[in-house]
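## Example pair
The file below holds two records. Each record gives the amino-acid sequence first, followed by its structure token line.
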Amino acid sequence: MKIYWGITASRGYGRTIPHDEPVMLSAGGLWNGSGFRNKTMYWGDWVLDCGGFIALNKWGDFPFTTDQYLELIEQRKPSWAASMDYPCEPSISKGTKLTVNERIAATVEYAEYLCRKSDLIVPVLQGYELAEYEQCWRLLSSKVDVKRLALGSVCQRQSTKDIATLCWGLMQFLPPIPVHGFGVKFRALRWPECWAFFSSIDTDSWEYHARRKHLKDAEAWAIYDDMFKEIATAPRQLLLAKQT
């Protein structure tokens, strides 16, 4: 299991997160209204998220085009970049006029275009209910040769058992390819279904913890790094069991 530490575009972290650690940056946070601001990246292994959740919450849609996003990827050359996607959490559904079906269709359309233009793009699977993810997968896999996948609309889920149940359900129809989970809670990784399903996750909870506890960034990151290491070495059952 690999973890990418989420960082905010407007801040530094050069002395906070060791430079041999992988990090994730949101393109939405880089957008300044007319283009993407430059940001010094101290880390050799970093990935770019399109910032779909930010885009829908803040602007109602992406403020930048697919070609502008591709230009950013070409200029900055992350390890990989998530395709532009439309989150389907109920909380975000209030801020957009698009139905879940329309968001799934748009997510697949973006993935098809971006994957055709860049080998660094990892397509995103969207939905909220299991049947919606399966619908997205059928459409996506008919248009894109998917060798790696990122799972959206997970970070707002509060029940770790629900996340584990979702992972089990997804394993029933997805091929055995690497899957990245956006914002998966550390607690969920204690479930063997989640640990077996995800090959990587990202989190910016460490930064929220720093603000809430009035800690220095380096202190908060060290706490979360220790927490992840403890979870990574925890014993787990060898066989998966469907949760009821």
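Second record, same layout:
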Amino acid sequence: MANGRDTREIKRVRNEVLVALKVIYPAAMQAHALMRSLLVVFPTLEFHHVRRDLHYLQAKGYLTRVTPGSERDALLTPWRRRWFRLTPEGVELAEACIQAPALEE
């Protein structure tokens, strides 16, 4: 268990993040809007869990952070206000064209 979440729930949340971003691809979504959409499926989900999942998916190359021109310093932007978009690899993963062992249930 990772901070009260089992492996299966972590994988489900990460897959739902990919699916939610796939729906609006190639557009981007702010983290707080993504969190609100995930709360429908996972009512006990907390933002720090979503933040870890976004960081994980970004590190794996499945999504990328989009920095609008209005942001003065991308590192100082709060996580809830950051924008994320799927990469081509993320789209393939969301469409089940490729597999990632860390995201399979």
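Notes on the second record: The first strand starts at residue 29 and ends at 30. The two ends are 15 Å apart (CA to CA).
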